[in-house]
Design a protein that fits this description.
The protein has 121 residues and is mainly β. The chain is built from no helices and 11 strands. A hairpin with a 2-residue loop joins strand 4 and strand 5.
């Protein structure tokens, strides 16, 4: 069974060692408007704080910066141990789970779009 308006998704991940940056490009092709979601899952010991263009991810003395795609009407939210919806958990063994931050990015988009996310060390 095919969708009435299928979405073509391609992902390209590049690592720039000198700039200490990972770039994630999600290319989408669609005719109609679709709800698009991106999720970034963090370690349970990670602290996530809002920062310009995205979030600062802290664990101990280390900090990474996550820049999220810029799109009109886009919004993001951090879930940690949420039951409605069920987001923000990690499980390392059967029948055990711990809260862990999950960053959810959402937008309604149409046409050909390239969503660029960056992780900067």
């Amino acid at each position: 069974m095919r969708l009435a308006d299928p979405v073509m998704h391609r992902r390209r991940i590049t690592f720039d060692k000198l700039a200490r940056r990972v770039v994630i490009e999600d290319s989408l092709q669609m005719a109609a408007t679709h709800g698009i979601e991106l999720f970034f899952h963090c370690a349970d010991r990670c602290r996530v704080d809002p920062a310009p263009g995205g979030y600062a991810l802290n664990q101990g003395s280390k900090t990474l910066h996550l820049r999220l795609p810029q799109a009109e009407g886009a919004a993001s939210r951090v879930y940690c141990g949420s039951s409605a919806p069920i987001f923000g958990w990690v499980s390392r063994r059967f029948d055990e789970k711990r809260p862990a931050p999950t960053i959810a990015w959402r937008a309604r988009l149409a046409g050909e779009v390239v969503l660029r996310s960056e992780v900067i060390c």
